[in-house]
Amino acid sequence: MRVLIFSLAYLPFVGGAELAVKEITNLIDDIDFDMVTVNLDGKQSARERIGNINVYRTGKGKASKYIFPAAAYKLAQELHKQNHYDAVWAIMANQAGLAALLFKKKYPDVKYLLTLQEGDSLKSIWLRTWFIRPWYKNIYRRADRIQSISNFLKERAIKYGYKGKIELVPNGVDAINFNNNSTAEERASLRNKIGLKSDDKVLISASRLVKKNGLDILIKSIKDLNVKVIILGTGKQESKLKALAQELGLRDKVLFLGHVGHKNLPCYLKASDIFIRPSRSEGLGTAFLEAMSVGLPIIATRVGGIPDFLIEKETGLFCELNNPRDLREKIELLLKDKELREKLIINGRNLVLENYNWESISQKINRILKNI
Hints:
The chain is an alpha/beta fold and 372 residues long. It contains 15 helices and 14 strands. It has two domains: 2-172 and 357-370, Rossmann fold; 175-355, 3-Layer(aba) Sandwich (Rossmann fold), CATH 3.40.50. α10 (238-247) links the parallel β10 and β11 (254-258). α1 crosses α15, α2 crosses α3 (95-106) and α9 (215-221) packs across α13. It is elongated and about 65 Å long. The two termini are 12 Å apart.
């Protein structure tokens, strides 16, 4: 079987969706994978082998994302003449989904799988797609099968008129390797390096610095707390968030450490006490699962796919949306209640090990691809 993947981004540019594709395809040996993606920085090879995927890149720079559907469709036709694909696989209902839709219209006998990974809110996506709304709806409707990483995204597909079978398969975490990626000495050294004292209580968040991830709420919540906050990531709101911390007199309590590679992330997580992301929208929330896998209790909002894995006072705590005071109360509760904290740590880690491991997830995707 041969499958062509359409993805707007891929390695070395890694987000949750790209990581999922890498992990899943690396564990599937009986399908040949090709991929068409964007040359996001213009510095990558036009063609190379990464893991189990032959990667073909189009364009040059981020602006190429906007012409990706046409460019990817053209390249896909050339590749199809050579490789005779059994299925195309679109990673998200974005420009990649549009490229897959164009391909499906041209080659209706080739099966089309759409994976839903989007973390943006329904309103945000609806506003961004007004000028191509009929096409956007057809990205869902023309799919032969949809795989969704959360019930939240499953409901979105139904809302946009998809009538077929939807497979609920979440993203995963390599919990064993993730949990064995740093020593106590390395964690102590890291804390010292970034200016943390041995008795500091540390909250951590890892995400793009964008409005949907609610980091302004996290910063506001700690104004009267004796804690330090580590914020990992970059994004459009970085300057605004730094200015907010300065305005609230929290400059020394909020540490903006920029981008940290996935390989080094476990050490930062293990050097902390609570993982928090007061999201305004969330496709699933893989960052929470990664934190749970290394033994961090989590606090999150009841949005998107988060309720799929967060059970109140069993695997984490919910805080109210856009409510710094409520978040502060939940932080104080976790810092004071040792018994609850340990319960969340144990239950959270066990949940990830049982339900979010890449081996079982890759087997499910393999089955889906072969039975579309």
